[in-house]
Amino acid sequence: MGAVFDKSTPAFAGSPSGAYTQPIELDYMAAWMRRKLVSGQHLFHQGDDHTHIYVVKSGFIRLYSLLDNGRCQVIGYKSPNEIVAFEHTAKHRFSAQAVTAAELRCLPTSTLYSVASSEPQILRWLYHAACAEISRAYALVLTIAKRDAESSVAAFIIEVDGRLAANSGSDFSTLPMLRGDIANYLGLTNETVSRVFSAFKKRRMIEVRGRHGIRLIDRAGLRAIAERVSNDRMADLFGDASVVPRRLP
After folding, report:
1. N or C: fewer beta carbons within 10 Å in the chain?
2. What is the pTM assigned to this prediction?
3. Among 130, 106, 100, residue whose Cα is nearest residue 37
């Protein structure tokens, strides 16, 4: 579906609190584009020209990269009020695809740069957005290097649930991504992810409804699992479990 211009609304609407998940409200009027996607439709492809900044209004966006061997690597997800991609290159380095029906706000990067040069609010907003992006990258490194399968899945469930909770009026959150995509993102096999979900369900830590509905019954328990350290995985990095760095007191 094509983009629709609407010049009667600020480019970013929301609270001026400065939190990344609360897009700021500008005191100027800018032409922004509204873009609607159906499930499975791409916002852009890897290699496309990087011409706009995109903010998710509703729905869920999957980011993935095509590797040299032809395989697809999921590198992240974007939920409401999040910028889809931080890139400084002229071409997109990865693809963005709607996992569900989605609506986004789009602004030409040239307009953003022009406004940011004179609007400190925009710079603060971008700073918080960049910090959130870096924090998620650190968390993924931690998951791959330090967590076992159960703690990886638990951390993922808690993180996604937290991002979606503010936009859900139900105790149930929706994990719109397939188990295979979760496995790909966490560096696990499909079978391992399914086994962990089944184990959490059996231990009454989560309740599953349908293919995507999930309710966190025991958040404290899931958080404890997410924070668990796997000495086996750390030993793979350091060569000997006895020299695994310990948490400072």
Report:
1. C
2. 0.71
3. 100
